[in-house]
Amino acid sequence: MIEFILNNIPLVIIIIGGILSLLGRKENNKDTSTKPINPLPPGKKDIRQAEKTTEKKEKPFDVLKREMEEKLRQEVQKHLPTVTQQAKKIRPVIEEKKTEVVQTAQTTKQLQQEYTNLKTELSRKQAMASQPLPNRSAHKVVEGIIWSEILGPPRAKKPFRPNNKI
């Protein structure tokens, strides 16, 4: 129990502050609801007013509240250096992990893009492989060479020149 409280000091501070603020509100509501019914003549002093002024000076809950807040502040100040030291030690590790996560996300994105590219290339190659090859016979090949000579540039534009120059 004590370890839980010491490990969760901010939570304890919040809970105690909430309880104290609720108690303070209840005290304020009681003070406003009690008004004197018959005011005294101006010449006489009211004993109730004297009691109220002494009550306003220091209420027991206010004193308790201040004491608790002071204890909590001291406790927080006592543990603050260790918490800040731990935070300083942890920060570089957190930053390193963040960079690792970012790098991993980038590499994952690159790998996904590469995967989709390879997948589309594979499907394109499979489609090409499934097409039937044209029927190539020797006669068709000879015919293709003849047509390239007929449709190509004239021989005068590309004369035959031997490499033997004497």
UniProtKB/TrEMBL annotation:
UniProt biased composition (Basic and acidic residues): 43-63
Protein name: Putative membrane protein
Keywords: Coiled coil, Membrane, Transmembrane, Transmembrane helix
Coiled coil: 94-128
Start and end residues of each stretch annotated as Disordered: 29-63
Record field: transmembrane: 6-23
